[in-house]
Amino acid sequence: MASWSKAILAIANDKINHNDLPGAVETASHIPPNSPIYKEAQAAIAHWQEQWQQGETLYKMAQEALQNQYWDRAAEQVPALAQLENPYWQQRADQLTSQILSEKQARTQLVEARNLAKRQNSEALGEAIALAQQIDPSSHAWAEAKTELTQWSQALLKTGIQQWQQGNLEGAIALVQQTPPDPTLSPDASDLVQFSHAQRLAGWSEAQWQPSFKQIWGLMQALSTVNQIEPDSQLYRQSQTEREVWQSQLDDLMQLQFANLSASLGQRFSLESAIQQAALIGADRPRRVQAQTLVAHWRQEIERIEDRPYLRRARELAEPDTIPTLKAAIAQASVIQLNRALRGEAQSAIATWNSRIETIEDQPFLDEARALASQGKRREAIASAEKIRSGRALHEEAQTAIRNWRTEIEIAEDRPILNEAYKLAEQGSLSAAIDVASQIGRGRALYSEARSTIAQWRIEREIVWDSWEAESAPESDDSYYEEDYEYEEDY
């Protein structure tokens, strides 16, 4: 009995862990009163029911708070739900967190949509409708948004009908296309909506230059939609005119799609066949421009098929990376003529190989220059690196090295001068130090350091002179001033 009862209680626990409270209670209730774990089972049932009741209460409070936009109050229920032992309510706590964010966003969207609608113009109404349609239908804000969305749509539709009646069909369609479907429309309004919907579907076929089944489907749907407009409708004549255009476009598009399928095989014969099929679309056909675009594209594909072997062979020739093989690769790639599809790719490869040839030719000069520089022969290094002419592949690298070596030369030449100046300054001969440091000319590597130090020494010298002048001011002995003047000369 005990083992059986424990097994039953384990099954009940599994059910509650899978959010099945009724199943858990029913299962645990099968444990009879004479079982040794009967009290434990009853306590478990009571605990489950208590936890479930708490969870439902907390969740209901959160939903009421959300409906009334009390975001903080709703958020307070999240940790309370998360503390419940049952995994179901812990999951609901996570869901509630996401819902709070979603409700806030939905409410913000609704407020923005209302503000737009208050402007009382067609453009703003269209924007309000578009924004309101983004509101999550599961949110509390949607119930309000749905009512106002209907009002705004009717207002925009009314304006669209007025535009149509005034002869501005294009403007009317632009307005009506912004409204969501409404089965309660009047016949005229319904026809206008259908016509605008057909226009939108037909417009898909203009989205890209390559034919697709989506474009074909769009035109077929447009034709099906426009066929629903009755002969007694004010839009019937215009709809039939568009129908003829769309039917012609559909015929052309079907032919181009068939040609495109042939071209997709990627073989020369299939591309030539596709070109022949597309060429059948005459100059007076609505898809003539698209056909010519496809023909040009397929001709380029044929050129790629013809010229790819030359470029492949050129790359194979270039693999040894020697000057003769690189020149041979350049000659091979140069076979691809101007205005061919692979001309740009060939020229890019040729430029790379020319650069590689220049690198191979000039690298010895740069290597020699670096070797000389490592021996302290920087002037000889510069002379060697300057053999690499402007426009060559390694010229910039060589110029960088030259600038560095010239800087090192200048530092080697000027550092003793600056050190001598520092020494004089330490001895108190600031004027002499300034004169020595001033020998370092503008543009030299140590020029900035020299000028900065000179400026500091001048300040220090002024301080010394000012202190002497202050000390000597009360004195009237001429001999003192003479001695003082001579002493200043040392500074």
Description:
The chain is an all-alpha fold. The chain has four domains: 85 residues; 118 residues; 75 residues, no CATH class; 95 residues, no CATH class. It is 76% helix and 0% strand. It has 20 helices and no strands. Helix 10 runs antiparallel to helix 11 and helix 13 runs antiparallel to helix 14. It starts with a helix and ends with a helix. The C terminus is likely disordered.
- Main sheet: strands, sense, barrel: none
Radius of gyration over all CA atoms, rounded: 44 Å
Given helix and strand content, the structural type is mainly alpha
Q: Count structural domains.
A: 4
pLDDT under 50 segments (min length 5)?
476-489
| Global morphology | extended
The first-to-last residue Cα distance is 112 Å
Average pLDDT for all residues: 86
Give the strand tally: 0
Strand content: under 5%
What is the number of helices?
Answer: 20
Précis, in short:
The protein has 491 residues and is an all-alpha fold.
List the helices and strands and how they pair.
Elements: H1 2-17, H2 21-28, H3 38-67, H4 71-82, H5 87-117, H6 122-132, H7 140-165, H8 169-176, H9 187-203, H10 213-226, H11 236-263, H12 268-279, H13 288-318, H14 323-333, H15 343-374, H16 378-385, H17 395-426, H18 430-437, H19 447-472, H20 478-489
Helix pairs in contact: 1-2, 2-3, 3-4, 3-5, 4-5, 5-6, 5-7, 6-7, 7-8, 8-9, 9-10, 10-11, 11-12, 11-13, 12-13, 13-14, 14-15, 15-16, 16-17, 17-18, 18-19
Core attributes:
single chain; 491 residues; mainly alpha; 4 domains; disordered C terminus
